[in-house]
Amino acid sequence: MNEDFFCLDDHDHKDQVIFYKKDRAMYVSESYIEDIFGQKDIWRSHWCGLTRDYNTLFGPFATLRRVLVDANDYLEDLKQYDLNKVKHPEILKHMRAFFEEAVERDEYVFVREV
Fold first, then answer.
1. What is the mean pLDDT of residues 57-83?
2. What does pTM read for this prediction?
3. Residue 55: C-alpha distances to residues 25, 38, 107 (Å)
């Protein structure tokens, strides 16, 4: 399995969000998730995917187990963010690519917060 790690050098790496699919796992520091998706720049009525789950403590953010998520819903959410306006645009690009590939291949995606 291929694995990608995105952690902030100046933060404790124990808090991560792990995205799994058939042949790949992506580990993202929760500090990045907070910086990008905790900004609430998108109107609450338009929240979907990761933004909704993270800010409302739903799905993978409500349990210690990995949770199957809707890859299309998460990809739609990731595309709402302007790469020129978010912190860590390179992380958002990697996340979009991960979910685009999952949608194209019709793969299941699981997410777990650890």
1. 91
2. 0.85
3. 23, 7, 25
Closest residue by Cα to residue 28 from 38, 46, 15: 15
Does residue 85 sit in helix, strand or coil? Answer: coil
CB neighbours (10 Å) of residue 21?
19
Calculate ∠ Cα 51-54-55, nearest 5°.
80
In the chain the first and final C-alpha atoms are separated, in Å, by 19
Strand order across the beta sheet in which 67-69 lies = 2-6, 24-29, 16-21, 109-113, 67-69
**Gap between the Cα atoms of 75 and 97, Å rounded:** 9
Reported as a pLDDT band with limits 50, 70 and 90, residue 109 is very high
Rounded to the nearest 5 degrees, what angle is found at the Cα of 34, between the Cα atoms of 89 and 1? 70
